[in-house]
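Listing 4. Sequential folding, example run.
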Amino acid sequence: MSNLNTAKVVVIVFLEVFISFGLGIYGFKFLLRHTTPEKFYVEACDDGADDVLIIDRVSTEVTLSVKKDIPPSAVTRPIFGILGTIHLVAGNYLIVITKKKKIGEFFNHVIWKATDFDVLSYKKTMLHLTDIQLQDNKTFLAMINHVLSVDGFYFSTTYDLTHTLQRLSNTSPEFQEMSLLERADQRFVWNGHLLRELSAQPEVHRFALPVLHGFITMHSCSINGKYFDWILISRRSCFRAGVRYYVRGIDSEGHAANFVETEQIVHYNGSRASFVQTRGSIPLYWSQRPNLKYKPRPLINKVANHMDGFQRHFDSQVIIYGRQIIINLVNQKGSEKPLEQAFATMVSSLASGMIRYIAFDFHKECKNMRWDRLSILVDQVAEMQDELSYFLVDPAGKVLTNQEGVFRSNCMDCLDRTNVIQSLLARRSLQAQLQRLGVLHVGQKLEEQDEFEKIYKNAWADNANACAKQYAGTGALKTDFTRTGKRTQLGLIMDGWNSLIRYYKNNFSDGFRQDSIDLFLGNYSVDELDSHSPLSVPRDLKFLAVRNLYIFHIVKSILFEDRDGASSP
């Protein structure tokens, strides 16, 4: 290869990396934690690095030093990142990543899943605590460990996982020079509260690792002898985060419960394409608190200013994503009907040309296991999807097309029905992308590529399970259709089992789960003198006394749900 051609290749690669990802301030890949009775030392072990983060266990002061200051008597352990710090009854705790699993490589950037953590007390003993404080501190530690035990924490020390490809392509030179923490989309930084002390000191930002919660899978695929990478990323928002029946609707800032941004990415011969969708709770002020019924009746707040929160929500969505095509999948009869009607009325009242509303009664249309009828909805929105398009950039970093808006799908939980529809819309977009990139021949159908279809369906089913476990506490329902393209009796039975587990968790353990998330995200702070601590709220023990009376009724209603068109969310 001539020097001129070599230079061209170098320039193209440089442009690709710079335009899409920025040169920024990367985090450290290799760390060692050294512990003494007085201090934590976190040593950067990357080639050429001499930085050491020092945390004083008494004063809590954070400083930057060099390796020569590490005392030889310190106890040393390898770690893979600092999640942050949190204050509990006993004082401050340092949370670090101790195990990780490689998910794959994303344009030469390694993506990891954090699989184990240590929660380390600053205090050397607990002798300063009373017996009640000791018990409270133990409970708060259990809350933190519960959140950390929920699968789905991802990170990269060199790539910004919180942004879509399209957002990363449309950034300023100043953005490119920021650290990963500074430039991250704060909606998806689940340890943002834990990093508040480190974020206040820019000189230590390389030790501050933004962590995403959600789902990521990567696959090397082949169609027609052409190899490409296919990636699926779901980013779960930390705003109005929580568990199924405890967090519904929106808050005063317009943040929707269970909001998830899902991006599907293709990388082929240097070209990159992506298609983004969102999901989120119906953006009104409503609730659905557990009351031992299988499906508690949702209640719409009759005194709240719904338009204020509704408009805040969609103003932000339009700014971030562009046009909004709402697909509302809830039942148009029974207890879900008032929510569907209220949603439609609010869209009509807002009268925005950037918002389109489509109601599709999933259970009515697909009753008696007629899931082939989902094609009615896909065909209905096909022209709109073509108008929204997708993001595409060539190997030199030139943007060929932008995605002009998103489908915002919802059901009651924004889990099972929502994931099915999202997977169908994503496949249609992928079909167009692969044809334009030359992977698929003209007239070829993606559904006919058996090997890839298996990868695709299983990945979307895994995505459904991850989102469901994080919000509802169990795997998703209806994944037999996502995995196989058919609704089966075995799938119906598994849905019954998962629904029964959801019922139990929603009624008897989700209060603890919600408190745990709120503590982790900083929605409340621990203060042993605060009488409003969640630990001081008594449980309603009548739930425990009567729960067994409902089991037979629940099992019966679940196993026959699809036959009469009434189903769980």
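-- end of first protein; second protein begins --
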Amino acid sequence: MQPTTRRLISSTSTCLARAPRGRSGASKDPLDMASMIPGTGSGGGGFDYPLTRPTILKMQEKRLFLHYLRLEQLQFPDLDVAFRQKYKKPSSEQIVRVRHQHYQGEPHPAARKVTVSVNCDDLASTLGSEQAQHKFKLLAGPRWDATNDEVKMSCELFPTPEMNERWCSETLDKMIAEAKDLSDPMSDIPLDPRPTLSRLVKSGKHKIVTLSDFPKEWLPASRKRSRPRRDSMIEAGPKGTTTVSAEGTQAVEAEDKVDVQNLPSAGVGKQGGAEIPAREA
């Protein structure tokens, strides 16, 4: 005969049992990793499938993004008031402009690049004479911008921006010291604006020079008169027909003949082309 009552092993009721401590504890953050484990979400449901590593990394990136959004909404107004500074215009002595570039804390090889620029008019008091200014522009070479009259140089040879900025500063000091040395003023060497024009053409701010831009005043006088002379040799015939005189035809043929001996050689280099011997019969 079986007993009618079932014996309980534990005397504690299941309704009074507390939830176990650990990762399965309650979490208020819906994006918390503990709440994403199957069986531990809101209502004890959670996900029915395990999370992959790309999904976990994507959720971590989203939580970091939400963290910075909270900082922007809650702490930025207070920081703006506490660290606000009034803009001060650079003085006459601060003529060198240094440009750094960063990518909001992300490592990037271009973040170490530093660009230093200075206007040549601001260096007039430092260089002194016009010969020194002319020599300074010659020493700058293609780094001199003829449009804005400024010298710009950059460096990214070294691993840190501070080292690259130091190199640009020392190079600028050496150029100024060399320009002040007028033992060789280089006054007979003209400035070359072709690098500036090349940059303008690449940016689309300057059109490319073509044959139509060639000045007509520089054309030889014989070329200017060639077409009117040919038109005058054509005589009007009866019933609207045109006839060309024999003298006019001979004159036109004489103009079209080109002296081959006066043409430049078609060879490559300074020596010109080699003469081709005549074929023997």
